[in-house]
Write a structure and sequence with these properties.
By secondary structure, the protein is α/β, with parallel strands linked by helices. It has nine helices and seven strands, in the order E-H-E-H-E-H-H-E-H-E-H-E-H-E-H-H. It has one domain: P-loop containing nucleotide triphosphate hydrolases (Rossmann fold), CATH 3.40.50.
Length: about 240
Amino acid sequence: MSVLMVTGTCTGVGKTIVTAALATVARARGSSVAVVKPGQTGVAPGEPGDLDEVARLAGVDDLHEFARFPDPLSPAAAARRAGLPPLRLADVAGQISKLADSRSLVLVEGAGGLLVRYDAEGTTLADLARWLNAAVVVVARPDLGTLNHTALTLEAMAHRGVQLAGVVIGSWPAEPDLAMRSNITDLETIAARPLAGVLPAGAGALDPAEFLLTARAGLAPALGGTFDAATFRNTYALD
Ligand SMILES: Nc1ncnc2c1ncn2[C@@H]1O[C@H](COP(=O)(O)OP(=O)(O)OP(=O)(O)O)[C@@H](O)[C@H]1O
Ligand SMILES: C[C@H](N)[C@H](N)CCCCCC(=O)O
Ligand SMILES: [Mg+2]
């Protein structure tokens, strides 16, 4: 049993796609996988949320969303605007612990980036990770601006004693520009380790069978495998 959290350097960086990729690879290895989205914002009741995307891509049906607020804001702000009580991550920690007792892997996708607030006290995914002693995958963009966002996220994690599982690039384009090619090297320096994975832009549009193959190729290290850096570098002519 283990709990792996997925955060990002910002919203919209590909956390849901990476969560689905981790889930599909783990399931293909025979693991029982639950996926948790503690607080879903920006989606109306009855509309498909991030967990529905994970279900579609990875075939997971063990899905747990603990609160939903329609405004496309942080969970704290969205709850406030809806006039609803905020989600208590301390309660969510207890629920995740229970799930982890009977699954090989529980994946938890945060809302937005690491320090997005869930309540008026400023509880964040970093608190949840620390309470559960869970490592965190950081999903980063490949393009200009990502070095600073990634460095800030990793520094905030280190400062709070949150363990880094690895940095994954959520959406790598077929035609990377100079900044992207350079950033690959610098992201590895910032993380002080090789990238834990890279998913191609467009991975989210694949059918589930193709998505599994893509996820396997791009994400093995985040689940204890080896990332084939040489193949990746050759594919994208990075050297
Ligand atoms: N590798 C990818 N392939 C295809 N589409 C992608 C990929 N990565 C991201 N996207 C698209 O970019 C958008 C944002 O991605 P995603 O929903 O995974 O972001 P997120 O980090 O989970 O955001 P949120 O904070 O809302 O949870 C989505 O519309 C998604 O379909
Ligand atoms: C609505 C969006 N897609 C996410 N669900 C929530 C993102 C919150 C980001 C808050 C912020 O850092 O400004
Ligand atoms: Mg998401």
